[in-house]
Design brief:
219 residues, alpha+beta, 35% helix
Length: 219
C-alpha cells in the first residue's frame, strides 16, 4: 500500500521551515525549532500519533517565539493535508484515547492533575474550538507579564499553533480543558490528545477502502 508522505518548505522573512512527514510511520522524530519545550511537544505528537516527523525551523527568536510556533502549526497542517491527499479510505473523525481504553474509559487524556480532550474531523472546513482554556490562559498570561517572553514558549502560543494547523489542514479541531493547574501539564495533555485524535482520524478504514467518508463526494 502506498505510503502517505509529504515534504513541505515554508520560507518567510520571519521563519524558514522544512518538514518531512510520513503518516504511516512508527513515531520517529527529529525536531529542531530553537524552543526546547516546543521541541518536546512536537516530539510527543509524533510519538503518540505514530507518524514520522522531521521538522526544522529557523525563526526570528530574537523577536519572539510567536512566529516560530504559529508557522510550524501552519506548515504541519500543510504537510498533513498533502499526505492525506484526496482522503479516500480514511476514518476522517478522531478523538483522544479510544473509549474502550481500560486506563481512561472515555475519550479524554489525563496528565497528572489535568484532563484534556481533543476531537478532529478532516472535513475540509477549518475551524478551531478552544474550550475551557480562556480563563486559564488569562491567569497564566497575567503571571507572565513581568517575564522575558523572547525565545520562550508562552502558554498563549499553544492556541496559535493549533489555529494555524486547523487552517491549513482544513479540519475541525476541538480542544477542551476539563480541569488542570500546571501550565506544562495542560499544554502536554492538549498535544497528546491532539496526537491521538490525528492518529485515529488519519487511519485507513478497511470497510470503505477507496471511498470517501462523505456524502458530498469531496472532502
Amino acid at each position: 500500500m502506498k505510503a502517505r508522505s509529504a515534504k513541505i518548505k515554508r520560507h518567510t522573512l520571519e521563519t524558514r521551515i522544512s518538514i518531512r512527514l510520513n503518516l504511516d510511520g512508527k513515531g520517529k522524530s527529529k525536531i529542531k525549532t530553537g524552543i526546547p519545550f516546543f521541541d518536546h511537544m512536537l516530539t510527543l505528537f509524533a510519538k503518540h500519533a505514530t507518524v514520522d516527523l522531521d521538522l526544522r525551523c529557523d525563526g526570528d527568536l530574537e523577536v519572539d517565539a510567536h512566529h516560530t510556533v504559529e508557522d510550524c502549526g501552519i506548515a504541519l497542517g500543510q504537510a498533513i493535508a498533502a499526505a492525506l491527499g484526496d482522503k479516500r479510505g480514511i476514518r476522517r473523525y478522531g478523538h483522544g484515547f479510544h473509549p474502550k481504553n481500560p486506563f481512561t474509559g472515555e475519550a479524554y487524556v489525563p496528565m497528572d492533575e489535568c484532563l484534556a480532550r481533543c476531537v478532529v474531523d478532516f472535513s475540509g472546513r477549518p475551524f478551531l474550538v478552544w474550550r475551557g482554556l480562556d480563563k486559564f490562559s488569562q491567569r497564566i498570561t497575567d503571571a507572565e507579564k513581568n517575564q522575558d517572553a523572547s525565545s520562550r514558549f508562552r502558554f498563549g502560543l499553544a492556541r496559535e499553533f493549533f489555529q494555524g494547523f486547523a487552517n491549513e489542514a482544513r479540519c475541525n479541531l476541538h480542544l477542551e480543558l476539563l480541569y488542570g493547574d500546571e501550565p506544562h501539564h495542560v499544554v502536554e495533555a492538549l498535544f497528546k490528545a491532539f496526537a491521538r485524535a490525528v492518529d485515529a482520524a488519519r487511519a485507513r478504514d478497511p470497510r470503505i477502502a477507496g471511498r470517501l467518508p462523505s456524502t458530498k463526494g469531496k472532502l
